[in-house]
């Protein structure tokens, strides 16, 4: 089905012609600028993907060699569990921002909606964190094979809201097509995580301290992101908040939860199966092979990161023909 915007298109043509601007040249220029920006955003988004892949490769020998496969298995279960909970608790509001906060928007609306989303997500994460803390012994036995790892579940309860807020901040930067800034922040965070793991692993063999250092990096990242966004972009509107548009965001985001959950099932649920029928040591051994085989994702994830904000921006600017062309070419890229 081809979407039509007849009235808007005619109005734009009349406006361009009345101003003496050659319509064809202007449209070609818009398409060229849009494509250049799309490619540039993909290149910026590739940098965090490469660094995250390298982080996985570097953390793998640090934990598995210095601490053993069981410790690496706990690390894997921790991260897999965080991803599972974020599938539900963020309500896919990051995707909603990539749909509705693109293009030219008043700053007051941006900050009001962002604050409302952060408040909602943080509240849900705090509530879930409380549930995790209260059931920490049972969860430790299920996830890590022993109740003595209950402190790890406590760290998880602390880590979860920090990670969720940072994810929403990064989703906002993607929606606003600020991929260069997002790339720099992600690279800095990844570097800090690697340094934290290396330093802690050299001084102790306790996975608790490594996970705590990761939570510390998330906290520092959240503070830096808050300072950048609120004091650089929204200097005049720090504490404005409105829930007026939240129902629209929820209507868009919540139906996408099954998609996000299905992705987690395909990518990560096998760790739970192995951990349940075997032990966390076997999870660590399995995850080593899976990490090595997952390097291909470096070629695919940057496109997915940029695609939704880009298509949404084209849709809002009524460039439906370019939207269809972009989508068709991306499909060919994935098939190839």
Features:
336 residues, mainly alpha, 14 helices, 0% strand, disordered N terminus
* N-to-C SSE string, H for helix and E for strand: HHHHHHHHHHHHHH
Q: Output the radius of gyration.
A: 22 Å
What is the tally of beta strands? 0
Uncertain residue segments:
1-20
Q: In oligomeric terms, what are we looking at? A: single chain
Largest sheet: none
Class based on secondary structure composition and strand pairing: mainly alpha
Q: What is the residue-averaged pLDDT?
A: 82
Secondary structure topology:
Blueprint: H1 6-18, H2 23-66, H3 69-89, H4 93-100, H5 107-134, H6 136-144, H7 150-175, H8 179-203, H9 207-233, H10 246-253, H11 257-277, H12 280-293, H13 297-316, H14 320-335
Helix pairs in contact: 2-3, 2-8, 2-12, 2-13, 3-7, 3-11, 3-12, 4-7, 4-10, 4-13, 5-7, 6-7, 7-9, 8-9, 11-12, 13-14
Describe the structure.
The protein is mainly alpha-helical and 336 residues long. 83% of the residues lie in helices and 0% in strands. The chain has one domain. It is globular and about 55 Å long. The N terminus is likely disordered.
């Amino acid at each position: 089905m081809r979407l039509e915007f007849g009235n808007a298109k005619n109005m734009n043509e009349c406006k361009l012609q009345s101003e003496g601007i050659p319509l064809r040249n202007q449209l070609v220029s818009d398409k060229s600028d849009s494509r250049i920006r799309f490619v540039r955003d993909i290149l910026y988004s590739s940098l965090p993907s490469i660094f995250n892949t390298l982080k996985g490769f570097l953390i793998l020998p640090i934990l598995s060699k210095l601490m053993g496969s069981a410790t690496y298995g706990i690390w894997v279960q921790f991260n897999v569990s965080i991803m599972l909970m974020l599938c539900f608790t963020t309500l896919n509001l990051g995707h909603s921002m990539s749909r509705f906060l693109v293009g030219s928007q008043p700053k007051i609306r941006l900050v009001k909606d962002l604050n409302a989303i952060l408040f909602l997500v943080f509240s849900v994460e705090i509530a879930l964190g409380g549930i995790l803390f209260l059931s920490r012994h049972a969860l430790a036995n299920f996830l890590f094979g022993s109740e003595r790892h209950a402190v790890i579940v406590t760290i998880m309860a602390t880590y979860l809201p920090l990670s969720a807020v940072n994810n929403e901040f990064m989703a906002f930067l993607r929606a606003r097509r600020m991929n260069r800034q997002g790339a720099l922040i992600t690279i800095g965070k990844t570097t800090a995580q690697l340094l934290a793991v290396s330093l802690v692993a050299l001084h102790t063999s306790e996975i608790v301290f490594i996970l705590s250092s990761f939570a510390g990096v998330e906290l520092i990242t959240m503070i830096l992101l808050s300072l950048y966004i609120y004091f650089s972009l929204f200097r005049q509107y720090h504490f404005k908040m409105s829930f007026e548009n939240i129902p629209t965001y929820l209507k868009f985001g919540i139906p996408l939860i099954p998609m996000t959950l299905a992705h987690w099932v395909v990518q990560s649920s096998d760790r739970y199966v192995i951990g349940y029928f075997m032990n966390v040591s076997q999870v660590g051994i399995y995850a080593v092979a899976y990490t090595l085989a997952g390097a291909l994702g470096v070629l695919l994830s940057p496109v997915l990161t940029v695609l939704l904000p880009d298509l949404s921006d084209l849709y809002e600017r009524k460039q439906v023909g370019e939207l269809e062309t972009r989508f068709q070419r991306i499909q060919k890229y994935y098939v190839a």
